[in-house]
Amino acid sequence: MMADRRRINGPPGGTRPAVFASNLQSGTSATDRAQRQRQPSELRKIFLKTGLIPTASGSSYLEFEPSASLAAARANPKSLIPPSSALKLACTVHGPKPLPRSAAFSPNLVLTTHIKYAPFAARQRKGHIRDASERDLGVHLETALRGAIIAERWPKSGLDITITILEAEDDRWWGSAPDSHDASWGMMNVLAGCITAASAAIADAHIDCLDLVAGGVAALVSDDSASTSTVAPKLMLDTDPAEHRSILSACVVAYMPARDEITELWLKGDSSKASLEDGDDRTGHEALIDGAVDAARGAHAVLAEAVRESLLKTVGQA
Amino acid sequence: MSNQRQASSASQVPHLSPAELSYLYSSLSLPKTPIRPDGRSPTQFRPLTAETNILPGTNGSARIGFADGTQAIVGVKAEVEKTVLANETLARNDGGAGLDRGEQEGSAAVGGHGSWVQMSIEIPGFRDDDALPVFLSEMMRESLVGAVGTREASDMAGGLKERLVINKRWHWRLYIDVLLLSQPLAYPLPLLSLTTHLALLSTKLPKRKSQGEEDPFFDDDWAVAEYLYPRPSLSSGKTNSTGSSFVRPPVTLLVISVGENIIFDPNREEIAVADAVLAISITRDSEAGTLKLLSIRTVDPPSRLTQPGVPNSENVSMLGAVAPTEDVAVLNPATGEEEVPGVWRPRRGGVKRSVIAEMVKTALKKGGVGEEVLEGLEGVEVS
Amino acid sequence: MATSLPPVAIPGQRLGSIVAYSAGPGTHVQQSNIYASIAGPVVVDPAQSKTQTKATLRVSRILSGTPQISPASSAPIKQKPRYNTLPAVDSIVLARVTRVQKRQATVSILVVLDETSATTSDPSKLASDNDNVASILTTAANPENHSSTDELRFQALIRKEDVRAVEKDRVVMDEMFRVGDIVRGSVLSLGDQSFYYLTTARNDLGVVMARSEAGNMMFPISWKEMRDPVTGAGEQRKVARPY
């Protein structure tokens, strides 16, 4: 027996809360897929605040507004399982600080990014060691930020950006089979949130950057497949994957409005069958990128307001 | 290891002086007619040697070597595995809440799953959990398993993951192991992607003798094994007689923009001065016969981490030697930055949407780079 | 022109055209316009009659409520504009000695005293990194809180030949610095990958705070000696001239 006998151990394997069939049937609405209540181009509200962590040189906290069905389920729970989740994450910036001794001389600011899901962030528990998807997200974030900062103003120094994701977006509705559309669409929303939050934290740390860089997501979704499968996919901004039956293609951008430039673009899926309005001769991927840029513009408005607010507060105090 | 820190970025910092960088940039950004260090045209690939089926222990394998000596080997192995249906799906079907939906999801479960394809990349000098190998394998895997028309997929026309389904309870699991044999001299993506493409093209799965929902058993005869990506001759050409419109594995192209020019398959020196670097995954559209886009990812251009040059007017050792009017900053129309001609400045900022659109268009257009690459790969003798 | 300037700016905000202003710290130029690159109050430094024709636009890191009147009008400006709060060549820094070797002393930089703050008499108006110099120094001079935070500070070397201007070949490092001393030094160069190089070869540079072997704060009695007020014992140091 390797178990520790000095304390009462939990069961060796995981357990699930009991879900009774009566419970499921009584609240049919709770087990239905969440429906998107927003217009296709309407974004979720974002809560963003900077300077919450006093020991870091810059920090920010970001939260997406829960979807209408999630808010309803929280107010009046019918099922143990929430219909969807909303993004919550905290970002800290440490530095500029000296590079580790092993590092070579750099005339520029050296950026390192760490994205970590809290173990309880997703429906499936995440381990404490960063897995491939978290490292992948870190590279995306690094690309997005490195284009925005003015690295040559901080020679010989490093900047660490650490993001903890407290609640992550679902990749699909929890009731769907895991393979109905298995690509990790939720990761794209998480990345967009990370970009916006990190940008606020960098501004809070007074690191020179070209512009506040904001993240935005757009997707081509084909819903109501029950009636027809011939309905062409529609372009939606800021999609919550839990609200859609099938996402064909999605795109996340990091966008700087002052320069009209994209520092990070991640597009995947089949975007060739988009149905656009008549007279719109853009190709699917161009429409998708434009949609994501529009979403990022919305996030940028929140971002600029949050940075200005914390600046005015500090100036007022001094 | 000295490049440990650089490994954290997706790119490697080149060891070129600011003067060299500036020279490269100005010759690559000449309007309409970029001059590449090796004399290629902007859309031309480096010459390479390729062979397939080199490893007898695999289901499919390939080796590609570039002229600069970098080589990659890819081995594909397949295993039969039991399909585990998600607990939620089963629970829901048992609960009987919405029978029709349960049915639909049951059929969706047959559609295959992205996690059935496993990809690992080994690059000398990098740990396998370093950012570069992780980023590269995610990038190539996501286009491989990419959602290629799950719904309208008829028989075998779907993406890779649909083809891995044996029946409702069994599937193939595919392991793609990529080995780079030398320290990467350039960003290794084109090499790895082309080699993976060839290896998948040559991958064969044993012929199934069982029927329907039986536990699968297979023909021992390797000679009758079937290609994972069917050949034109084997599938009797009932729908597609053109030959070029068969399903092919995707291929990921590395594209850079320098000034107003768009350059494919950059070598190490060229990528060091790129304004923007994009990895574009394309494949053949099985219905239309044209190319279609599967994914785009930006890659962090190493030019952002380069050492800046010092204009003569600011150089202390040149003080008084030059008239201050001699080097005047001018506006670079592509980036909008003020630059002194001939003095290198690390790139900053992002990429314009019009440039991205142009890059994708060049890759996808009929008779463009994408078709050329795919045709070239099909020309490799797959024995 | 000045009326169109916002009182505070956030990164990416357009401030003005390079026709009217020249870009100072905290700003960058894009498509012939000056944009803010950090968040902070917008400051206009009037043009220097001799060298410049345009007023300089900058965004201040110092978040004090009163607008900073740059001392440019009184002091002749010869230094380059400072784009960051890092130690630069010719910066005056305060550093704590962490190791004394035969040929060099290793120090970790605590505070960069940049030009604007050095001329300001009120220490509360320093930049956020440098606020409360007194408390940083007292905690750093306390022998109990060493080591843990040194990894996060910029390291620097004082080489034997940079300790003083006279009798350079007679320098014995043990008689110049001891571990734990607080040194005022000037940055010679950005150095190699891990160290800056400092010099104390000026009268106003050298040890400013030191404890004796008995652990008491000492006071300077000459340019090369300090004394313990309790035991009365003297110790040798390269002492900075007190103001």
Structure description:
The complex is a heterotrimer of chains A (318), B (383) and C (243). By secondary structure, chain A is α+β, with helices and mostly antiparallel strands. Chain A has a single domain (40-70, 82-317), classed as 2-Layer Sandwich (Ribosomal Protein S5, domain 2). Chain A has six helices and nine strands. Chain A has helices at 21-26, 28-31, 68-75, 132-146, 185-204, 284-317, and strands spanning 46-50, 58-64, 88-98, 110-117, 157-167, 214-221, 234-237, 247-256, 261-269. Chain A has a five-stranded mixed β-sheet. A four-stranded antiparallel β-sheet of chain A has the order 7-6-8-9. The radius of gyration of chain A is 21 Å and the shape is globular. Chain B folds into two domains: 14-44 and 240-383, no CATH class; 51-99 and 109-230, GHMP Kinase, N-terminal domain (Ribosomal Protein S5, domain 2, 2-Layer Sandwich), CATH 3.30.230.70. Chain B is 24% helix and 21% strand. Chain B has helices spanning 4-8, 18-28, 87-95, 99-109, 131-144, 160-163, 189-201, 268-271, 353-364, 369-378, and strands at residues 48-52, 60-66, 71-82, 117-122, 170-180, 204-205, 226-227, 251-258, 261-264, 276-284, 291-299, 330-331, 338-339. Chain B has ten helices and 13 strands. In chain B, the strands form four sheets. Chain B has a five-stranded mixed β-sheet with strand order 1-2-3-5-4. Chain B has a four-stranded antiparallel β-sheet with strand order 9-8-10-11, with helices on both faces. In chain B, strands 6-7 form a two-stranded antiparallel ribbon. In chain B, strand 12 (330-331) and strand 13 (338-339) form a beta hairpin. In chain C, 33% of the residues are buried. Chain C contains two helices and 16 strands. Chain C starts with 7 loop residues before the first strand and ends in a 7-residue tail after the last strand. Residues 65-79 and 116-131 of chain C have low confidence and may be disordered. Chains in contact: A-B, A-C, B-C. The A-C interface holds A 96-99, 101, 103-105, 150, 153-157, 203-204, 206-212, 256-259, 304, 307-308, 310-312, 314-318 and C 8, 10-14, 26, 28, 30, 35, 37-41, 61, 63-65, 83-86, 128, 151-155, 190, 192-194.
